[in-house]
Amino acid sequence: MKLLVTTLVGPSDPTRASIPFHQAVNGAAKIMSGSEIGIAIAGDAAELLKPGVADGIRGVGVPPLATLLADCKAAGIRLYI
After folding, report:
1. Is residue 57 within 8 Å of 22, Cβ to Cβ?
2. Rounded distance, CA 15 to CA 11, Å?
């Protein structure tokens, strides 16, 4: 099975910006073991991947974005920009 999560939200809304990464790594990757999971990053969300930006993104009720990105990498979740 394959899943592609999409996001357009950038640093101006830390919670909404973090949710797609949280859903992919702490949701889909855990319940869809063996599946191919990716995140399509477009628009303002591309700003999240600039050096140092993720370090300052802390949404409400989700792990820090830098942690989520590291977890996505460890889980083999691909990022498409």
Report:
1. no
2. 9
